[in-house]
From TrEMBL:
Family label: Belongs to the SELO family.
Database matches in Pfam families: SelO
Name used for this protein in its record: Selenoprotein O
Species whose genome carries this gene: Chanos chanos (Milkfish)
Keyword Transport assigned: no
Biased composition (Acidic residues): 650-667
InterPro entries: SelO
Gene name of the record: selenoo1
Membrane-spanning residues: none
Length: 696
């Protein structure tokens, strides 16, 4: 190419500068803007592999429909009016290589992260799946409100620990609440502020607790509104549409493989892709190759590979539910469509962390039978694994699946016992009687109505017996007992908690029917449900015949007995150890990093929700900071900065949209006659008003 000589006279210099400026303004400004002023979200690098690997619905027609022979459908997220951030999670956004402060300052941030504006490189789609809901096959479900945006390549400097169970090096991002999809059924594809606050906070709380989970990067609300009947009582209200950015290696779930199911014997429903066995094999290959590469590489025989895959899913699921049990977490809707193929906590709806320990704890007010109660979770997860195994047949032969399912309870028991030993500070020895010590602890907590989280947190303050000290040392045992008694329920609390949830007339009718017409009885109820109601009645009768002094004496006796056993076991921890003080310090350190100081109790979430609904987002942000470090106290973050039903104690970051006045007036009218709430530290037992909270 011939070189060109430019004469640098003054006119030519001037002309050259003009040409340069024009070229910058016409071409270069866009190019430079892409480097300097582009939205940080536009710099994310997408590689949307799943849409290339799995069948995509050829139809793009709007509206709800049955989707056959496809795993995803393209969708168009529906924009929100005036979207704005409620909060963002810095650690979650860092997975995508994003800086939280940059995202917050980005004027396009709320639009991009609510689906109101499409991020360059993203390909919005909704995932098709089925599910067994409350034990019945429901047919096609799918992403009715969630929208896949794409898969973002992890930054090159991402911690290897974060990629241990995400070997593909990509993070799938979703916006939940972005509008209608082919799978919205009778709904509108929207989520409201209260449910979005709960999902956002719980996703990040679980991660900080060390429980495998999907993540939440941001929470956006808006001036768009939808009608919701919160308690299904005929009193609907308009609520703000809100969107959570969800992050995970994949959102494929057990129900993803149920789209190939033949007609169900009970419901008559079948999966929309029944007969497309080649797609099931294709999806199984994709999941194993992408997320379980070590299994793919270790097996050349497909049956052996698929069996190893199912065993690993079984192991991860057992580990997950063991961790739930150990932090007092109840999912609430453990349908097969809410079970992650990676063993992650997914789809946070009517979840709940237990306050007062009760093995029959039900967090979902819609779960009348207690199918998804706290104590039922381990067995339900095994049941769901069995449905996954059925969905994988014949790629996974039934006899191979059954053999793996037999390993589930041993997996679960091993994980649970290991976690519980850490929670009790039993670190040096594994004694056969440890299981009974743990069982006795849970029974004592139940009998005394002890707070689950705080009781475990207190145990690190019970010292190992020092040299020459008797395990039964009365002063030490009394101090420990007094400490634990502070976490026990009062008589009236226990009476309220043990009231039957069934109307006495209904219970009487069912008892009569069980004798006279067993077939009809089994259509309307079951023996387990009735037995649970009778147990509550018996406990309530005992409590009504007890006074406060008698209750306190019984609680003291129960805890004194258990603390004495515990101290005997701790004495064996110190046997052969020259430095008992070092043993105690190590115990306390491990226990205080295993037993959280604070969890997302319902009243903490509810207080943050009410603040946000009144236009004050600071309490959501404050709770997020507290939950990011659940094992330690943070100066200045000991208690809420906003308390409802009594006015705002501290005004934080308010919603300046100009549309909060109507809500505020309504909320004031609603709570005008209610008692003012008082400050309760985040790490305390719940206040009395927490009993009023109903989550469905």
């Amino acid at each position: 190419m011939a070189s060109q000589t430019i004469c640098l006279t003054k006119p030519n210099i001037f002309r050259s500068c003009v040409i340069l400026l024009r070229s910058i303004s016409s071409v270069g400004m866009d190019g430079m803007g892409s480097i300097t002023s582009r939205s940080p979200l536009e710099r994310m690098e997408f590689d949307n592999v799943v849409l290339k690997k799995l069948p995509l619905d050829p139809s793009e027609e709007p509206g709800v429909r049955m989707v056959r022979g496809a795993c995803f459908s393209r969708v168009k997220p529906q924009p929100l009016k005036n979207p704005r951030f409620v909060a963002v999670s810095s650690p979650a956004l860092a997975l995508l290589g994003l800086d939280a402060e940059e995202v917050l300052k980005d004027p396009l941030g709320p639009e991009y992260l609510s689906g109101s504006k499409i991020i360059p490189g993203s390909e919005p789609a909704a995932h098709c799946y089925c599910g067994h809901q409350f034990g019945q096959f429901a047919g096609q479900l799918g992403d009715g409100a969630a929208c896949y945006l794409g898969e973002v390549k992890a930054p090159a400097d991402q911690s290897p620990d974060l990629l241990l169970e995400n070997p593909c090096g990509r993070w799938e991002i979703q916006v939940k609440g972005a509008g209608l999809t082919p799978y919205s059924r009778q709904a509108d594809g929207r989520k409201v502020l209260r449910s979005s606050v709960r999902e956002f906070l719980c996703s990040e709380a679980m991660y900080a607790l060390g429980v495998p989970t999907t993540r939440a990067g941001s929470l956006v609300t808006s001036d768009s509104r939808v009608m919701r009947d919160v308690f299904y009582n005929g009193n609907p209200q308009m609520e703000r549409c809100s969107v959570v950015l969800r992050i995970a290696p994949t959102f494929i779930r057990f129900g993803s493989f149920e789209i190939f199911k033949q007609a169900d014997e009970l419901t008559g429903r079948q999966g929309p892709s029944y007969g497309h066995d080649e797609i099931r094999t294709q999806m199984l290959d994709y999941v194993i190759e992408t997320f379980y590469p070590e299994i793919q590489q270790a097996h050349t025989d497909p049956v052996e590979r698929n069996t190893a895959f199912f065993r690993e899913v079984t192991r991860r699921t057992a580990r997950l539910v063991a961790q739930w049990q150990c932090v007092g977490f109840c999912h609430g809707v453990l349908n097969t469509d809410n079970m992650s193929i990676l063993g992650l906590s997914i789809d946070y709806g009517p979840f709940g962390f237990m306050d007062r320990f009760d093995p029959d704890f039900i967090c979902n007010a819609s779960d009348n039978s207690g199918r998804y109660s706290y104590k039922a979770q381990p067995a339900i997860c095994r049941w769901n694994l069995a449905r996954l195994a059925e969905a994988l047949d014949p790629d996974l032969p039934p006899e191979r699946a059954e053999a793996v399912l037999d390993e589930y309870m041993p997996f679960y028991n091993a994980f649970y016992l290991a976690n519980m030993r850490k929670k009790l500070g039993l670190l040096r020895k594994e004694e056969p009687e440890d299981e009974m010590l743990i069982t006795d602890l849970m029974q004592t907590m139940h009998n005394t109505g002890a707070d689950f989280t705080n009781t475990f947190r207190c145990l690190s303050q019970i010292p190992c017996p020092s040299e020459g000290e008797m395990e039964e040392d009365s002063e030490t045992v009394k101090k420990a007992t007094d400490l634990l008694l502070q976490q026990c329920a009062l008589l009236e609390e226990l009476r309220v908690a043990n009231r039957p949830t069934m109307d006495p007339r209904e219970l009487s009718m069912l008892l009569s029917m069980a004798q006279s017409n067993p077939a009809l009885f089994h259509m309307l109820s079951d023996r387990q449900t009735v037995a649970r109601q009778l147990e509550r009645l018996a406990r309530l009768k005992d409590l009504l015949e007890t006074n406060e002094e008698q209750l306190k004496a019984k609680q003291t006796e129960d805890w004194t007995c258990w603390v004495t056993k515990y101290r005997k076991r701790l004495a064996r921890e110190c046997e052969g150890e020259s430095d008992a003080k070092a043993v105690q310090e190590e115990r306390a350190s491990v226990m205080n990093s295993t037993n959280p100081r604070v969890v997302l109790r319902n009243y903490i979430a509810q207080n943050a929700i009410e603040a946000a609904e009144n236009g004050d987002f600071s309490e959501v942000q404050r709770v997020l900071k507290v939950l990011e470090k659940p094992f330690c106290s943070q100066e200045g973050l000991e208690q809420p900065g906003w308390v409802g039903r009594g006015g705002v104690e501290e005004q934080g970051e308010r919603d300046e949209s100009g549309e909060g006045g109507e809500d505020e007036e309504e909320r004031t009218q609603e709570s005008a006659g209610a008692e003012a709430r008082v400050f309760v530290p985040y790490d305390s037992k719940p206040p009395a008003w927490a009993n009023e909270i109903c989550v469905t």
